[in-house]
Specification:
The chain is α/β, with parallel strands linked by helices. It has 18 helices and 17 strands. It has helices spanning 3-6, 17-23, 33-40, 50-54, 61-69, 73-83, 87-93, 100-103, 105-110, 116-129, 152-163, 180-183, 194-202, 222-228, 257-266, 286-297, 318-326, 420-439; strands spanning 144-148, 167-172, 208-212, 231-234, 240-241, 254-256, 278-282, 302-306, 330-332, 335-341, 348-354, 360-368, 371-374, 378-379, 388-389, 392-393, 406-408. The strands form 5 sheets. It has a 5-stranded parallel sheet, sandwiched between helices. A 5-stranded parallel sheet has the order 6-13-7-8-9. A 3-stranded antiparallel sheet has the order 10-11-12, with no helix packed on it. The longest helix is centred in the C-terminal third of the chain and has 20 residues, at 420-439. The protein is globular.
Amino acid sequence: MTTKALSEGIVAARLDPAAYADHFSDLHPPLDDHEALVAADRCYFCHDAPCITACPTDIDIPLFIRQIATGTPEAAARTIFQQNIMGGMCARVCPTETLCEQACVREKAEGKPVLIGQLQRYATDTLMAQGVHPFTRAAPTGKRIAVVGAGPAGLSCAHRLAMLGHDVTVFDARNKAGGLNEYGIAAYKSVDGFAEAEVEWLLKIGGITIKTGAALGRDVTLAELQSDHDAVFLGMGLGGVNALGVAGDDKVGVTDAVDFIANLRQAADLSLLPVGRDVVVIGGGMTAVDAAVQAKLLGALNVSLVYRRGRDRMNASRFEQDLAASKGVRIITNASPVAVHGNGSVREIEFEYTDDDLTPTGQKFRLAADQVFRAIGQTLTGEGLPAIERGKIAVTGAGRTSVAGIWAGGDCAMGGDDLTVTAVAEGRDAAMDIHTTLMG
């Protein structure tokens, strides 16, 4: 896509070449050995640890921190991977500040939790750097399972099934495995190609075949998967993006935040990635924050994040909100878009203030914009899927759908929060249920 095709105000190379590496460096640099020991020493090793309950994957956090404290980070990594095979990525992207660290006794007592997320990264990075896979496959069962989607839920499910001795084929619409981890999170949260390296490491369990460029409905049907396999797991995420639903939504310069983030993550040279001078992001979740911060880091002069409710209702954590503000992003709350203005290309976007119950107040304002990113939620796409409930695949128990032999998990299914760690847990639990069902 050429700069001219985008908009006159959306251009590349807004910064000096050296600035890009600095702006997109690791958000949380890894702990060294001494720092890890000091951080681990702060843990009380609670017997009835609230941090375990707060972890969607039920990692025994006090145990792995004690293992770090005793100089055995490899053992700590195995403790983590037993519950969360994607613990390396989760250590980087999970909102630990609202999960395990918020529940930490140190946080309650002192306002400063144990650095659980960074300690988890220290342990998992240590083992992964050795090229060691912590598990081996069980004896072959002769069962074949199809997994749709090579994201956190699909890969977690595939790994657990392969470990139990099943043969797994993973189908993904994109040309690279990883899903959200590869295409959907900010580049500064996962540097040096970690998402791709984690997939390669995970596949060392054996028994997993990845077929990329294979979209459900386009290249393979659900009926075909059912016919050729003993079970099917659906973990393809949400393929559609909600429209603004206002006049001018189709103007040049108005695009989806998920596409912007995916293009940035796959860019070989960030200085070639165009960005506007005046950028407006509409939404209040992690995707909105990731898009807004990265637009600013690419050199946008003015970046505004506009959300229809108050800051306390934003899905993005307080840490993410503060990160955006620290990078120069202006956060505007209680405002909804009413129109996009411009002659062909966006020039301004008009908003109306709302009350907490989203009732319009009649007060309107405009923001200059040559680039607008929609980040107001994604939708499930596909035909012939199991029963749908509130826009997602309805599930009971450990991911069972309305169709026998088909399970689902991750963002495409009804369940918990739309987080990487939750998707991993749902994929793992569905795999165990599939195994139990197939083996009688």
